[in-house]
Amino acid sequence: MDRACTCARAAALAITLAAPALAQLPPPPVTIAQATQQDVPLFSSGVGTVQAYRSVLVRARVDGTLEKILFTEGQDVKPGDPLAEIDPRPYEAALQQAEAKRAADQAQLDNQKRDLTRYAALARTNFASRQQLDTQTSTVDQTVATLQGDEAAIAAAALNVSFCHITSPISGVAGLRLVDEGNLVHANDTGGIVTVTQVQPISLVFTLPESEFPKVQAAMRAAAAGAMPRVLAYASEGATPAGDGPPLATGTLLTPSNSIDTTSGTIALKATFENSQRTLWPGQFVAARVQLGIAHNAVTVPVPAVQHAPDGVFVYVVQPDHTAVRQDVTLGYEGDGRVVVTGGLKGGEDIIVAGQVRVQSGQKVDPRPARAG
User: Fold this and answer.
1) pLDDT surpasses 90 at 116
2) CA 176 to chain centroid
């Protein structure tokens, strides 16, 4: 018993002697930054795939030998630019044949009209019967109809000739050629000759959780009288949206899908981008952030300032006398390295953003401003 009391007195004496030594330790250095008031854009993040604004698989519309490839792979093309040429000679011959038949039928019609004029004159003097006049009138009408058929045949033959000269239907970029010169192509070939994709503008289809859909609807209603919500596209590592650094491109939200995917619980949305620098390309996997609102005059702190404890979330506020005081806070939106504080701070406080591990509430600290950037 006496030995136990002696040990306790020795421990108490050691603590008493150590306390002045601890009190004499210099305040721990900490990095501080201010809690600021600012307008914070509120984003929702998802991932998606870039799609061509328009894409056309150019196919042959007539049968024949592919004589010429008139584009370079990767070339920018405009509507009407030549892409390929099919041997037109069989179709030019068919056109000439149709024109020759029209000429023959036209000559026949001219002769029949002259006969009709003669029959009409003879019928007035009873030298020709009324039946002969009606028969000749019917013959003229039949030949007129034949000429109309000839005109249609000529138009069809001329169309086939024009189909031999294949042009781009849209503005875009020509892809890799799918068939070489000298091959026989057919109007029903599924492979096509080349794909032309429009990349300026360009589209992005991405998904958000269905819980975000009401916010999307609210943002679109708020933007009905002005610009649609903006969408930022970032390079994506795997399936994780990257919000750091400048975006690859900035566009506008076009529309959400007309239904929610019940298997994944997500809603697909489509955005368009001018893509003037062509930083987006069809098939590219990117992260998307759509702005769904703005928190005006929100108090924000850097994300590293926020500390988590079993009893809640807090930050260390440095008082003018360099005393660090724990301040419980409530948090809101987080993005771009800062978090919105919805309760506990008013803005302007000095907050510890690094070095908290050595700090206890009520302790003196050595505050040092955070480096800019």
Assistant:
1) no
2) 23
